Amino acid sequence: MMNSKYLKIYNLIKTKIENGELKPNTKLSSENELVKEYNVSRETIRKTLNLLVQNGYIQKMRGKGSFVLDINKFDFPVSGLISFKELAEKMGTRSETIVNELELMEADDFLVKHLEVQEDDLVWKVIRTRKIGNEKIILDKDFFNKIFVPSLTKEICEDSIYEYIENTLNLEIGFAKKEITIEPSSEEDEEHLDLGKYDMVVVVKNYVYLSDTSLFQYTESRHRPDKFRFVDFARRR
Question: What is the tens place of the pLDDT at every residue in 52-64?
Fold first, then answer.
């Protein structure tokens, strides 16, 4: 009986979230209030809340309560190589790219390691904020070996660097090696992203190669954690 009670309450709250009656980032009623509202035990409510957390509908925050998550997440392909412009067009969502930094710099120890260049080689540094709708939710930190990308402009960076590389420079982008981690947000993240209550970001590190296996780009793409679902398709053989 208890099982059916907590599932019934779970489905009621889930439906309110899905139809927008409970808005993203709003605070859910407290455990005590839910116990009174549904006339059930605290254990039943806790099982309901745990299932809502498990299925991505709410987030519990210690000392603050439970908050409704935005369930309209954007699918971001893990295995594909796709530009932000291509992703935004595929989603059919209003988007904007803000160029925060564009400079030609000498490679430091970090870039010697990650971009396989020599110390003092010239590298393009591009820092861009990506807006989807009215929210700034991705911070892209790109580094391009100048040998392969001799020039860049703000206009190219606002549009699509990959489009420029393929259609103007006539280079063939081949493949990428990716690493995905969850990290505490930095001061730079907090400056350029609308993080709200989140203090963590999902970081996708990309090592991108041309079809001739030349490493030409290293990227750190830093995502607000509630906005993306990283998806892949795997086949055993």
Answer: 888 778 888 878 8
Q: Where are the domains of the chain?
A: 2-68, 74-231
What residue has token string 């006339």?
39
Whole-number Å distance between alpha carbons of 83 and 219:
12
CATH of 74-231, picked from 3.40.1410.10, 3.40.50.620, 3.30.565.10, 3.30.420.40, is 3.40.1410.10
CATH architecture entry for 2-68: Orthogonal Bundle (1.10)
Which pLDDT score is estimated for 72?
A: 66
Please state the pTM of the whole predicted model.
0.68
The pLDDT of residue 234 is 63
- pLDDT category at 3 given cuts 50, 70, 90 is low
| Residue linked to tokens 């019934």 | 8
